[in-house]
Amino acid sequence: MPTVVAYHFPGPDDADRAHAAIDGLAALHLADVRDIARIRWPREAPAPEIDHGANLTGVGALEGAFAGTVIGWLVLQPWLGAVVGAAAGAVIGHAVDVGLDESFITEARAGISPGSSALIVLYADQPSPAVTDAFREAGITPDAASTTITVAQEHRLRDLFHR
Fold it and tell me: What confidence category does residue 27 fall into, taking pLDDT thresholds of 50, 70 and 90?
């Protein structure tokens, strides 16, 4: 089953190192990644910087950036104005209906704050143990929130953002 993982890092540049580690694993076919996106929130910045669908070796063009979609739920919704926030809240409700459980969204969102970074990864299946090893070798120790979804739920989530 596809798995969405939100890795949280204490430093604003840690997600870059984690992305490089996963990119290396994907190039060696040791991590089956369908999509990936980074969030960086420098301590003095008013809002996070987001790289939707960040380039990843071995990952082809996807129908929309799934990880970017998840980032929209995790990051953008809390900082948007009331009208847009309400619309995003409705989208989160649909996301829960089609596969992302509310506890995952809440837990993943809680780890994103000024001075931190995150990496949102959609794996084709469970993350490889090689990912944990690569993070350890890179000297990064993330907190993580994850949830599994069916392939059908993945397609419904993509469709939700292409209406």
Answer: very high
Bridge partner list, 148: 3
Q: Which residues pair with 6 in a beta bridge?
A: 120, 145
Tens-digit pLDDT profile for residues 85-138: 444 444 455 555 556 777 887 787 777 888 999 888 888 889 999 999 999 999
Maximum distance among all Cα pairs of the chain, rounded to whole angstroms: 45
Going from N- to C-terminal start, the domains of the chain cover: 3-160
Half-sphere exposure of residue 117, counting CA atoms within 13 Å on the CB side?
20
Could you tell me if 21 and 36 are in contact, meaning their C-beta atoms sit under 8 angstroms apart? no
For tokens 């987001």, the residue is 50
3 state SS of 34:
strand
Query: Tokens in use for 37?
Result: 């996106």
Q: Enter the tokens of residue 64.
A: 């929309």
Angle (CA) 50-133-10 rounded to 5° is: 40
| CA quadruple 119, 125, 129, 133: dihedral, nearest 10 | -20
Asked if 63 contacts 158 with a C-beta cutoff of 8 angstroms, the reply is yes
